[in-house]
Amino acid sequence: MTESEPSPLLRRSSGRWRVVVGISLLLIASGVLWNLQPAPDMALARRLLDTGDQQNAQTELESILTQNPQHAEALLALGDLLRTKGDLIGATGCFRRVPPDSAQFRQASIGQMQTLLEMSDLAGAEQQMQRHLASFPDERLVWDELRWLCFNEFRTRDVEELSHWWLKSHSDDTQALTHLLLGVFRPQVPQEGTTYLQEMDAACGQQVPVILALAWAAWQSGKIDEASRLLEQAWQIDAGDVRTRILSAEILIEEQRFAEAARVLKEDPFQVAGEMFGDQTDRWYWLRSRILLEQGMVAEALQHVELAIDRGNGCSAQLEYIHSQAVLCNQLGRDQEAIEAFHTARTIERCRKRLAEIAFSGAWENPTPELRLELAELYQQSGNDRIAELWRR
Questions:
Q1: For a designed S-S bond to 213, which of 153, 249, 299, 385 qualifies (C-beta 3.0 to 4.6 A apart)?
Q2: Which residues contact 276 (CB under 8 A, 6 or more apart)?
Q3: Nearest CA to 215 among 239, 245, 187, 186?
Q4: How far apart are CA 293 and CA 359, in angstroms?
């Protein structure tokens, strides 16, 4: 080693410093380049959407959500974009993630409902509609959509309860009064609605409301075996569904299979969930009364019928309840009560017949003051004072 040459130790140290300096310079350069790159921009995403550049808009929105997964505006925009592109599952995922306290939540909730309908998921759409109305009870679009869904599933009682629920806070909605008239007295019939429901079932299976609607239609058409098969399918999907229990008990009683119906109903009353559908416990008391009557327990059957009348409070099933009350009072020798109940039943029957005539006549499209007054009187005599008052207005 000459005096001009550095020692090996110094050479190794010098090499390490060069590596360290190189790495530092590389990191600095990378940081500069990173900072020079534009941050994800919602305004840019909106411009890209406005110009129809969906791919770059999606990339920008996804970048925004990478940095902030709860960015409400980006979630809503991406959900709408994915829905447009046909990615319905991705769209519902975006809509579902929009925070409830954001300004975009209401629109995202409607978007989710509409996307579920496009997926033929009527059961999921119904749940979403109920959630939406619980948060936004003035959303007429959603109320109307839910009413139509129930109508198409032959759920006349639910259509009736939905109309009553809406009219409690929208008493000036005369169109809703007309919907109530038509929904009850001109309901959907199996021959017209079954094809649509079969298409929904084929597109998206395992939907209890759709299966129950098909079971009801089969039963009404005299296809008992098909109705039983569909009901068994509904039981397997959700054994706790209240409407499954009600329809099962109704069919079993009509088939004179009272012991099986009793096992379905059990001893304790149950109700339909959701304020907008009413509790409908009258249906349990009515079905239970028929089983008690079959067992020869006439007094107990009458008690249950009277509870059904009280819980029903003017519903469309009142005629059946009051006629049964009259018959049972007659069997128990309570003649005056029987006479009064028969008179009430005849009055309701006459009113319902006339209401049905009006519903099918088309006169409701341009109701005259005279027709409004007649409708009020018919509802009054049927025991529905509240709807009568609304028609008088």
A1: 153
A2: 130, 133, 146, 161, 162, 165, 166
A3: 245
A4: 35
Rounded CA separation 263/74 (Å): 52
Q: Which residue ranges of the chain lie beneath pLDDT 70? A: 1-39
Q: What is the pLDDT of residues 304-356, one digit of tens each?
A: 999 999 999 888 899 999 999 999 999 999 999 999 999 999 999 999 999 99
DSSP codes of every residue in 73-101: HHHHHHHHHHHHHT-HHHHHHHHHHS-TT
CA of 117: how far to CAs of 88, 145, 253, 299, in Å?
10, 10, 35, 48
pLDDT tens digits for 136-167?
Answer: 999 999 999 999 999 999 999 999 999 999 99
pTM: 0.87
How far is Cα 122 from Cα 116, in angstroms, rounded to an integer? 7
| Percentage helix, strand, coil for the chain under 3-state DSSP, each rounded to 5 | 75, 0, 25
Which H or E element spans position 310? helix 298-312
- Burial 345-379, CB ≥16 within 10 A → b, else e: beebeebbebbeebbeeeebeebeeeebebbbebb
Report the amino acid identity of residue 374: E
